[in-house]
TrEMBL record:
Natural source organism: Methanosarcina horonobensis HB-1 = JCM 15518
Entries under InterPro entries matching the protein: SAM-dependent_MTases_sf
Name used for this protein in its record: SAM-dependent methyltransferase
Length: 225
């Protein structure tokens, strides 16, 4: 079967997953980090609790805690159903079952929901979205974009990807994007075209294998300096 997401789903991942998805070192975690499209991930909450410096930006932050919680509930059944129907496209090792996946994701999103009100007051959660970000040039040391660019190849155009990556490079000294596959675990056709165009602009672009794979073949990130 084919997974068909007609819009972008609020689906949060944990601090530990971010560390592995983006090969984050202890030194990386001390940098000023932008999480772009973080949604209800617990990365901000957990890294802040460890003394880190992170700002997350996502359009879902326009909503209240209760509204986001409702959106998560509406999304949960759809994603779990599609994952069950397409379970052959995933690697069931560290996450051993559909039920465990649900528990891990809901645990991460519960941490986000608990932190969200305070994080909004502290301006750690900012409503906004690519391809225009409300930040100054090179305001961040490291920008992370998880499960948005390349994943939604059918929803987001090549032009959107190029504008978004240009904007991420404007506001951050280094950019990391994960994964490089789409929702059906196929390498996005945009990846090679994006790499060629960015290299023509004299940017240092590399594909890096990471110690994380849930979607089959989804164990590479794009690193742009």
């Amino acid at each position: 079967m084919t997974i068909e997401y007609h819009d972008i789903k609020p689906w949060g991942r944990s601090f530990d997953e971010y560390v592995r998805m983006f090969s984050l070192t202890p030194a990386d975690l001390k940098r000023k980090i932008l999480g772009c499209g973080d949604g209800p991930a617990s990365f901000n909450a957990e890294l802040t609790g460890r003394g880190g410096n992170v700002i997350s930006i996502d359009p879902v932050y326009r909503f209240s805690t209760d509204q986001i919680k409702q959106k998560i509930g509406e999304t949960y059944d759809d994603i779990i159903r599609q994952t069950r129907e397409n379970r052959d496209k995933f690697v069931w090792q560290e996450i051993g079952s559909i039920e465990e996946l649900g528990r891990i994701r809901m645990s991460a999103m519960a941490k986000f929901l608990e932190d969200f009100p305070e994080g909004v007051m502290q301006k750690r959660y900012i409503p906004g979205e690519l391809p225009l970000l409300p930040f100054d040039k090179k305001e961040f040391d490291l920008a992370l974009c998880s499960h948005l660019l390349f994943l939604y190849t059918d929803n987001l155009s090549l032009e959107f990807h190029l504008r978004s990556l240009g904007e991420l490079c404007r506001v951050s000294k280094e950019v990391r994007i994960f994964p490089l596959v789409d929702v059906n675990a196929n390498r996005s056709p945009y990846v090679d075209r994006v790499i060629d165009i960015l290299r023509m602009k004299k940017l240092d672009v590399t594909e890096v294998k990471v110690a994380y794979e849930f979607q089959k073949g989804g164990n590479m990130m794009l690193k742009i300096c």
